[in-house]
Amino acid sequence: MRILVTGGAGFIGSAVVRRAVRAGHAVINLDALTYAANPDNVAEVAGSDRYVFEHADIRDRPALDRIFARHRPEAVMHLAAESHVDRSIDGPGDFIQTNIVGTYNLLEAARAFWSGLRGAEKERFRFHHVSTDEVYGELGPTGRFTETTPYAPNSPYSASKAASDHLVRAWGETYGLPVLVTNCSNNYGPFHFPEKLVPVVILSALAGETIPVYGTGENVRDWLYVEDHAEALLMVLERGRVGETYNIGGNAEARNIDLVTMICAILDELRPDGAPHARLIRFVPDRPGHDFRYAIDAGKIRAELGWQPSVTLEEGLRRTVRWYLDNEPWWRAIQARGHRVERRGLGRVEVGA
Question: Is residue 157 among the annotated active site residues?
Fold first, then answer.
């Protein structure tokens, strides 16, 4: 297929781009190259004749129309989004504009393009929207999210993604646009921008700096290795039923504190200088509205498409730690551009905001 991937220079998007090109698909990578995007993430495929990069923003409708007309994609995989909960608490405006308005623009550009197709081309077209389990809100000690769990987002980030999910479904129902929606659990793995929990732990430990853990570390997440997720996303695009939602989870629940201590133990083994790294753990004030627990029931995608995660949490964390150890130039370059681990998401109101 000819696939237009939005956000293809980001963490999950780049994993999709790399896998799709390796699988023989032609990929048009549309990315605005905001702070968390990195062309180095797709260096592996950048020289392929099946890869094209388009520097554009999904908030720019004329640019989207030009890209659809130029490349005539057979499918869209929409991953472009602002995604960091803490940043959404401090500055929700970018999340509203990119995740909601940007998704609206992309849907309208796709609908205009799709409406002009005929026959098999029109029948083949797909719009795959990639979303998060955070739209469902939080769970108590038991239970799992299913595709029919009511939405109850609790952060500006999850609310913006919930809105985008609803837009996509509405465009499917109202206009007949052939849409697919997936909601995933927490991703981790190579090329993860160092503001999320797993890379923060790894890089803080390597630097001998404090490893921050929110609250008491009791919050529970289901962890999904990013390469497993990319495989599932392409499977849904190729074989999923139009109009359906598929939850994608890692079957790997862990408390935050347990995840952090697992990473520290792996570092103790692979980089014994500075061990025990767990001595650096410090509990810090929790974020406002921090959801207690997420867990995904991935039974539908397993039953319909035969997908299930192939990487255990322990193995995935070991691969991830080793990747950061082996790819120091990648994260050093990000630090050289001015990125530093700093606390966000305490809900402080800025003057004039």
Answer: yes
Residues listed for the chain: 353
pLDDT above 90 for 340: no
Domain annotation covers residue 64: yes
Residue 304 lies in a domain: yes
Which tens digit of pLDDT belongs to each residue from 245-288? 999 999 999 999 999 999 999 999 999 999 999 999 999 999 88
Query: Where do the DSSP E strands lie in 99-152?
Result: 126-132
Q: How far is CA 300 from CA 35, 37, 59, in A?
A: 35, 31, 33
Catalytic residue, from 31, 82, 86, 134: name it.
134
Establish if 286 belongs to a structural domain: no
Catalytic residue among 104, 157, 188, 294: 157
> What's the total number of domains in the chain?
1
- For residue 241, the enclosing domain spans 2-188+223-251+291-311
pLDDT at 308 (0 to 100): 97
The string over 307-340, giving b where at least 16 C-beta atoms fall within 10 Å of a residue's C-beta and e elsewhere, is bebebebeebbbbbbebbeeeeebbeebeeeeee
Of the candidates 20, 154, 145, the one whose C-alpha atom is nearest the C-alpha of residue 79 is 20
Identify whether 175 is a catalytic site residue.
Answer: no
Residue closest to 53 by CA, chosen among 9, 84, 103: 9
Question: Three-state DSSP class for 126?
Answer: strand
Whether 153 is in a domain gets the answer yes
Is 134 among the catalytic positions?
yes
Percent of all residues in the chain with a pLDDT value above 70, rounded to a whole number? 96
Does residue 69 carry a pLDDT above 70?
Answer: yes
Angle at 14 between CA 181 and CA 305, to 5 degrees: 40
In this predicted structure, what is the pLDDT of residue 168?
99
CATH number at residue 49: 3.40.50.720
